[in-house]
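Subject line: Sequence and fold of a protein, written as structure tokens
Area: Proteins and the way their chains fold up in space.
Start of record: The labelled sequence and token lines come straight after this line.
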Amino acid sequence: MAVPAIQLGQLWKSNETGETWLVTKTYSEAFSSYAMLRKVGGGDSDVRRVKVDRGAGGVTLPGFTFAQETDAF
């Protein structure tokens, strides 16, 4: 599911495991944007860096599905 923007505090669900992940940081490197995700209820080692995919409908995180009912903050 595409959203208008990746924002801090958004919850995303892993398509592979069904675990919920929290966006803790977003940043850009050269021509790409990345999101840092921390597993909800996980430890300090449960952190992932995911490249943001941009499309005509918005942005997505590959391998994850937006897990909140509304994307209007």
User: Anything to note?
Assistant: The chain has no helices and seven strands. The chain has one domain: 11-66.
